Amino acid sequence: MVTDESKKLLTAVGAYTEGLKDKDKTVPAVREINRFVKHFRGETDFSSITPSQIGTYAEEACKNGSSSEAIEGLQAVRKFLTFAFKENRTTVNLATHFRIRKSKISSSSKIEDGSAYGSGQEMTPDGYEQLVSEKDSLESNRVRISETIHTAASDGDVRENAPLEAAREQQGREESRIKEIDSMLRTAIIVDASGRGTEKVRIGTTIQIENLERKKKFKYTLVSPSEANPLEGKISDASPLGKAFIGKRVGQRASAETPKGTSNFKILNIS
After folding, report:
1. Total-model pTM
2. Which residues of 144-178 are buried (b: 16+ CB within 10 A; e: fewer)?
3. N or C end of the chain: smaller count of CB under 10 Å?
4. Which one of 1.10.3720.10, 1.20.120.1200, 3.40.50.620, 1.10.287.180 gives the CATH number of domain 133-188?
């Protein structure tokens, strides 16, 4: 039973940290969670914390730190918010509004830090929201699939029951996808998709290029693998073309393997 006391921020944090494994109680994680509690005050009821406040906090926190430890701490806060929602301590999943945005840092600081953003996948805000929507849709389908399995299981011999087998296979696929999306959302690093002030091609930027052999111009937007849609001009940073363009500046050339062989391109514009 969820009591009024359990909905207090400090009480929820206590319940969350008590269930953590020792390996998850890292200094960056504990430090950032304590900072979060201090900012919103421990006696605050979760219901009084708005998505807008969470978004603002995350944005400011990302501005103040972009090292691997800072990112680890922010991810810990987001995991706590997910826990609070699943435990019915809040009616709103505030974790979906806690976006870890990549700050602009120099190449040298990335090298010194080794891996500035851990294993998180960079993605645009639209890509993040698409994953959230897909996960919500899959979760809402759980009841229907369970009912289908129950109905099929009660209909004769389960050893030769095609509807039952099909429903179980669908359930397995969808549960697997939910876990996959959960993992992606927990470590997602939201990048600025506006392209303002950027000089290099990165995820979120739209580029105009020229195929030097064919003398044709194309426009692409670089996105994460989960957002890629060639028909809409969205190419993955992990694709041959994406890998060739990432990090390039206007005027520079890039070569990529295509179905028709090696093609050479020139970057005309980045926005």
Report:
1. 0.53
2. ebeebbeebeeeeeeeeeeebeebbeebeebeeeb
3. N
4. 1.10.287.180
Rounded Cα distance between 145 and 165, Å, is 12
Please name the residues in contact with 178: beta carbons below 8 A apart, sequence gap of 6 or more. 135, 138, 139
189 and 120 Cβ atoms separated by less than 8 Å: yes
Identical fold, 133-188 and 206-270: no
DSSP per residue over the chain, as a string? ---TGGGBHHHHHHHHHHTS-GGG--HHHHHHHHHHHHHH-TT-BGGG--HHHHHHHHHHHHHH--SHHHHHHHHHHHHHHHHHHHTTS-SS-GGGG---BPPP--HHHHHHHS-TTTTPPEE-HHHHHHHHHHHHHHHHTHHHHHHHHHHHHTSS-GGG-HHHHHHHHHHHHHHHHHHHHHHHHHH-EE---S-TT--B--TT-EEEEEETTTTEEEEEEEE-GGG-BGGGTEEETTSHHHHHHTT-BTT-EEEEEETTEEEEEEEEEE-
What residue ranges do the domains of the chain occupy?
5-104, 133-188, 206-270
Q: Decide if domain 5-104 falls under CATH 1.10.150.
A: yes
Q: What are the mean pLDDT values of the chain's consecutive 10-residue runs (271 residues total)?
A: 69 83 82 86 84 86 74 88 87 86 46 40 82 88 85 69 81 88 81 74 91 91 88 88 91 86 91 86
The domain 206-270 having CATH identifier 3.10.50.30: the answer here is yes
Q: What is the pLDDT of residue 264?
A: 92
